[in-house]
Amino acid sequence: AGKLYQKKVKGVAVERGVAFPVCVSVNDVICNLSPLGSEELEPLKAGDIVKIDLGCHIDGYISVAAHTLIVPESPDSPPTSISDEMGNVAVAAYNAMLVAAASIKAGATNTQVTDIVTKVANSYGVNSIFSVRMHQMKRFVIDGVKEVALRHPTADDLEAGEQKLDECTFEQAEVYAVDVAMSTGDGKPRPGVLRTTVFKRNVEANYKLKMKNSRSLLAQVDKKFPTLPFTLAHFEDERGAKMGVTECVSHGLLTPYPVLHEQKDANVAHFKCTVLLLPSGTARVTGLDMPEYFKTDKKPEEDIQQMLDDIAAAAAKKAKKKAAKKKKKKAASS
Predict the structure, then answer these.
(1) How far apart are CA 31 and CA 270, in angstroms?
(2) Helices (H), ranges, the chain
(3) The pLDDT of residue 1 is above 60
(4) Are 128 and 186 a contacting pair, CB within 8 Å?
(5) How many Å apart are CA 276 and CA 294, to the nearest integer?
(6) Which of 7, 176, 310, 330 has the smallest set of CB atoms within 10 Å of its CB?
(7) Quick one: which of 267, 261, 283 has its CA closest to 91?
(8) Interatomic CA distance for residues 207 and 184, integer angstroms
(9) Which long-range contacts (CB under 8 A, 24 or more apart) does 149-152 make?
(10) Virtual CA dihedral for 135, 63, 35, 15, nearest 10 degrees?
(11) What is the pTM of this model?
(12) Which residues have CB under 8 Å from 166's CB, separation 6+?
């Protein structure tokens, strides 16, 4: 890995860095919480639900991941007393991510994936977070044109201003962020009091800013983060960045990633992985295994369970092959 990160092309180091800033969202906060160093937040405590979300890139090729865990009583022991509701939503979100990743393949459509995710959510009695979507990723583009909704909008959703995605077909050689967030609440995110700190440059917008802080911030963004999301914590003059960002957003120069909340008593789980649509099939290249302490008595429908069994069998076969190769290599060197 060290050699990869230090690789040079024609004597020039390959560009690499953050593609999506680290966000740590706790309990009813769904995503996009990347607090500033100057902000005082309540410290984590045992039993808190923590969602970690991040992304990186090498030469503009992006990889993302998100994971959900529970804060334990001590570092040496797993969490205890996890509610049935939390187990249901965590297993549902993780399994939905797995089957969605397996379903994103050349020739399939985004509506087919939405149908499968909806079926998983219904099996476990939870709701997908409406505004969270899966995106195609391209070089230096984290949210491409092709998208996958986690659920189809109802008539009430459309009346409230939600948009129905156009159907699209997946093609070979594409890359997708398989992003799944589910809740025991109504699945409708709402604003809260936490500050938005994650933004992305809108490369198509231009405006002659009036404030000095705004002009300084935008100049730094254009130099350091011209296409990918960033957090205000990346800037040395945090106060100046906070003052300048308002004018930039109001004139469409920066797109905010607001901190999303669920109902106060809702349990929220968030998992994300990156998939590549290769000639040999779809390959999941990021994402951790679900923590073993998330359990449920609920079962998915038969076709979903068959998909999960096939995914588990393929993973076990791959792990066995990798272990045998490692053992053979070790024997050859001894």
Answers:
(1) 8
(2) 2-5, 84-103, 110-124, 155-159, 212-224, 238-250, 302-333
(3) no
(4) no
(5) 27
(6) 330
(7) 267
(8) 43
(9) 149/110, 149/114, 150/96, 150/114, 150/117, 150/118, 150/121, 150/180, 150/181, 150/182, 151/114, 151/117, 151/118, 151/121, 151/127, 151/187, 152/111, 152/114, 152/118
(10) -120
(11) 0.92
(12) none
pLDDT the model gives residue 170: 98
Lowest mean pLDDT among 131-145, 150-164, 181-195: 150-164
**pLDDT score, position 305:** 96
Q: How confident is the model over 214-220, as a mean pLDDT?
A: 95
Name the residue among 115, 68, 133 with its Cα closest to residue 94: 68
Least confident of 146-155, 157-166, 295-304: 157-166
- Structure token pair of residue 37: 């160093």
Residue 187 C-alpha from the chain's centroid: 16
The length of the chain is 334
What are the tens digits of pLDDT across the range 102-148? 999 999 999 999 999 999 999 999 999 988 999 999 999 999 999 99
pLDDT at 270: 98
| One-letter amino acid of 288 | L
- 188 token code pair: 């409708």
Measure the CA–CA gap between 91 and 221, rounded to whole angstroms: 39
